[in-house]
């Protein structure tokens, strides 16, 4: 039963790789960013609240995000395992996830960290801006998201490193090659 996290800075390929890895492992990929964007598009109360944070590149408050994730992982399709993409991003979210997992009687199998140099991250996100036009892919907001990542989320990864469950994977190069490296990393932990 795989319960794993994919972590890394904005633009490191989390969303791209999460779908591929979850498909290979036969588990569901849950992306907090995708759930927020869907709610923003549908203009749900959650979306209206989340939009002002997302557009500025800020984190949506923990209380809102934690409740959303708890509801999502309680759904039947997550009962046989899941891959979380973009969560947890703060110390408060780590604590909340720990208690969700404790309640379910399962532990995290592995945390994979995608590493990509900052210059390449910015280039990728600016390229995506040309294609998708996401409101949070402007240069200023990208810089702010990267700063937030280094200030808050890097410490989250360190806290998992202290538990000895983090595997670092080089996120540069062709998408297929990164997928292959990630699968090798996951299989080596499960073996
Ligand atoms: P996310 O949706 O998680 O956005 P992201 O960090 O930019 O990652 P994403 O998955 O989109 O990009 P990827 O690296 O796959 O979060 C968006 C916002 O939602 C946050 O800023 C925050 O406001 C809010 N939010 C989400 N989770 C939250 C939480 N837990 N708590 C609070 N707030 C939260 O890909 C980027 C680009 O790179 C793509 O265009 C892709 O095609 C390209 N790419 C991927 N792999 C590549 C490769 N190997 N080579 C070249 N390009 C590649």
UniProtKB/TrEMBL annotation:
It comes from Micrococcus lylae. Pfam families: ADK. Monomer. Belongs to the adenylate kinase family. Residues 31-60 are annotated as: NMP. This is Adenylate kinase. Consists of three domains, a large central CORE domain and two small peripheral domains, NMPbind and LID, which undergo movements during catalysis. The LID domain closes over the site of phosphoryl transfer upon ATP binding. Assembling and dissambling the active center during each catalytic cycle provides an effective means to prevent ATP hydrolysis. It is found in: Cytoplasm. It comes from the Bacteria. Its EC number is 2.7.4.3. The keyword Transcription regulation does not apply. One of its GO terms (cellular component) is cytoplasm. It catalyses: AMP + ATP = 2 ADP. The gene is adk. Catalyzes the reversible transfer of the terminal phosphate group between ATP and AMP. Plays an important role in cellular energy homeostasis and in adenine nucleotide metabolism. AMP binds at residues 32, 37, 58-60, 86-89, 93, 134, 145.
